[in-house]
Structure formats: C-alpha cells, structure tokens
Amino acid sequence: MQINPYIVLGSAVVGFLVGLTGAGGGALMTPMLILLFGIKPSTAISSDLVAAVVMRPVGAFVHLRKGTVNLRLVGWMVLGSVPMAFFGAYLLHLMGNAKSAEKMIQTILGVALLLGAAAMLLRLAMDKRKGNERKAIVHDLHVRPLPTIAIGMAGGLIVGITSVGSGSLMIVFLLFLYPMLGANQLVGTDLTQAVPLTVAAALGALTFGHVEFAVTTSLVIGSVPAVLIGSFFSSRAPDRYIRPAITFVIFASGLKYVGVGTTVLGWILCAVLLGAGAIWLTYVRPWRRDFLPEDTVESIIGEPAPEADRSS
Description:
The chain has helices spanning 5-21, 25-37, 41-66, 71-95, 99-130, 145-162, 168-177, 183-208, 213-234, 239-257, 262-284, 294-301, 307-311. It is mostly helical. It folds into two domains: 5-256, no CATH class; 261-312, no CATH class.
C-alpha cells in the first residue's frame, strides 16, 4: 500500500473546509480524486466515503464539546438518511460502470448545488432587508420532524450514490427550514448527523463498491488533523464569517460538478473573491476609524477615540 503525498495535501485542504463549513467533503474530495489523480469515479466515491467515517466524527466531537449541536434534530435526520444511504450505495452498484449515468448524476448535483448557493445569497439578502439576526439557541429549537426526515432521506440517497449531500445540499435545506439558527450551529448539527450517515454509506460502499485502501489511508492522514482545525474555527467564529465560506464552497462544488474545467474554475473563483472583496471595501470602508470598536482604536493608537468617531 503506497501513500500518495499529493492526495494527503489535497485532502488536508478539503478537510479544513469540511470542518469550517460542513460542506465540501464529497463535493470537493471526490472530484479531486477523479480529475486530478485519475481515479475511477466509483472507486473515488467508495474510498472517500470510507475515509469520511474517520474524518467527520472529529469535527462532530469539536462541535459537541462547544454545544453547537441539537441532538433531537440529528436524530430525526438520521432516521431518514441512514436507510436511504444504504439504498443509494446499492443503486450505485446496479449502475456498475455506466459512466453516462454517473455523469448525469454529477451534472444534476452540480445544478442543485449552484441553486443552493444562489438560495443562500437570497436568504442573506432577505435577512438583511428584514433585519433578521440568527441568534436562536440550538438546544431551544422547535424541531419539525416530517420535513427534517425528508431532508435526511434526500441527503442520504444522494450521499449513497455520489458521496455528496450530507454537507452540501443538506445544510442548504436546514438553512431554510430553520432560518434563525447561526451558521456554526448548522455546521455542528450537520457534521454530527453526517457521522451515522457516512457509516451507513461506507458499509454500502464496502459491500457493493470498490474501495482502494491506499487512497483511503492518504485521505485520512491529510483530512483528520485539518478537519479538527477547521471545526475549531467554525464552532467559535461569528455567523457573518461562516455563512460566506459555506456559500463559496457550495458554489465551487457546483461549478466543478456541472463540468467546469479546473483552470476555468480557478479563474472564476479568483474573480468572485476579488469582486466580493471590492464590494466589501466599498460598503464597509474598514480604513475608517469608526469602523473599529472604541477599545480597539484605543489599543491601536494609545488614546481615546475622538468624540466624532464615538457618536457615529
């Protein structure tokens, strides 16, 4: 068994994004294996699922310690996702080497992810217009069982077939079903429900799929420490930082799945980041002294902030 250092490096980047956003596991890891390392799609999916069994519990543990997980919500999601994940793995087995079927599924998922990213931007605009703040406490959440089970079933089926869904699509669904929860709480709950889901999908992959253990080991070595670091940040960072990161990862995943080439994708993402940075600088203007809290100004310049800055 030969460990691939490039897969280790790539999986570390993806693992950090998974810990930070709850998304990007199958949506980024599987395309990386297929497009950059030439691994057969069904093998990449199965190997990624088995590696996720080790990776995701690490992120879930961090969020459980921080208290950003609603276990009742997790239970209802798992009720729908686990059996459908195993069924999805069986469907992948029935497809065999039908590359056209896999390509069609990838394209549909790509479109769904792009719609999800657009929906998250729309949700952000609606929240700003209405003045909504995501300050609900995750443990006081009023869980809606039937819609939550439906989300689990849809995500479980998709993750069983493609290893995508538990982080990318399901977190979008949760965002709209429970709109007042903060992004870190959504990430924590999603990472936790993904543990039994990925175990079920991995058992299906081991039963029906083609797991390459050298690839799986390389993924685990790179992703586990990285997801620990990402989860540490996501469990503590404010909502305004986590939500844009989630949207960006889902947008990138969607572009890759609809067939955008690696080079073109890189230019698109660079343009998006530069555009977002320019908009932020235009509206926020962080160089103003009144952009900073008073205590921050005083610590920087060593004197109290002027009255004009205080009043603004």
